[in-house]
Structure formats: C-alpha cells, structure tokens
Amino acid sequence: MTCPLEQKPRYQKDANVKEHKVTSEYKSLDKILSLIPKGRVMDIACAEGFLVWLAKKNGHTARGIEIDAGRVERGKKNLGVELDTGDVFENLNLIAGFDTYIVARFFHNIGYEKSMKLMDEINKMDDYIIIVKYKPGMRKETGAPREPLATKKGVNSLLEQYNLKKKSFPGEVIVAAKGKYEYVPDMLRKHLPEG
C-alpha cells in the first residue's frame, strides 16, 4: 500500500538527496555512523533514503523501508540506494536481522501504540543499536506543543521501557543499544558532546 504525499520532503532536502550534501542537521548522524561498528543498517520510514546513503558512505550495508513510492523512486534515482516500498507494519519481516536501526522523526507520526509495536519487534534482537532523531524544541513552529514522541523526553521515555543503554547527541539524536553493543553510547560520548 502506498500513500502519496502532497508535500515536498521537509527533512531530506534537495541538498541532501540530489547534491549528496551532509547538511548541519545530519553532521552528528554522519559522525555516529562513522564510529559505530560496521554492519547491517535498516532505516525505518526512510523517506528518500538519505540516511541509507549516509550509512553506506560510512562503510555499512544499508537499506530502508518507506510507504511513499514517490519518495522511494526519488531516492533510488538520486542516491542509488536500496529501498523497499511498503508499510513497515505490513512488512515487519523486512526489519529482522539488522545490527543498527534508524528511526528518524517517525515515532510521533505513528503514535505510542504503534511505536511500542515497532520497538517490540526490534527488541527481539539480542544485540542492536537504535539511532533515533527527534524534532527540535518542545514546541512546533506554530507555538503549539509537540507530540510527546516528537521530543527528546518522549523518545527517552519510550526507550527506557526496553532497558537500553542510551545517550543523547547534537542534532536531536539519541543512540541506544542492547547486548554486545551496550558500550556504543559511552564510546560515542568520547567523540561527541551531549545533545
């Protein structure tokens, strides 16, 4: 099932997708992807797949899943990345077996119940890293409060239920880890300040 979006992509801009430029909002993610152990990366709700491209640039094997077929095609065309079109909840089998998961500005779009379902699926893995990008500030540009899962506090609250080792970094990024990767957030802290 695809869901055409009538909006221009907001967080993966032409500078990212067409020019392959690591803009300021992705600098800490670029650094994180350069430092974590090389492995298989899955970007959930990947839009055009810029973070898939960024993971590959940093030596990982990477793929993404996105419900919007237009964004997937734009990413394949401009970034040459491996993306699947579909609803992640109808394709949970596609997210099994990865070392690192990226969830960028997605939890708040699906709400708490579906976020828990997604985390339950990821947490079936004995060892994994999850990189979550949330929205800046407690309020939207309109002044209205952000949904809890769009904020650092809300994402931290969700991740705490899974007893993960975690740290926050610049660029509205939280890195959490389980099992053999529990050392990763502390290792990253040696290279990146708190966010």
Structure description:
With 195 residues, this protein is α/β, with parallel strands linked by helices. It contains 7 helices and 7 strands. It has helices at residues 14-17, 27-35, 50-57, 69-79, 107-122, 152-160, 184-189, and strands at residues 40-44, 61-66, 83-85, 100-104, 128-133, 165-169, 173-178. Strand 6 (165-169) and strand 7 (173-178) form a beta hairpin. The longest helix has 16 residues, at 107-122. It starts with 13 loop residues before the first helix and ends in a 6-residue tail after the last helix.
CATH architecture: 3-Layer(aba) Sandwich
Structural class: alpha/beta
Q: Tell me the CATH topology.
A: Rossmann fold
Radius of gyration computed on alpha carbons = 15 Å
Number of domains as seen in the coordinates: 1
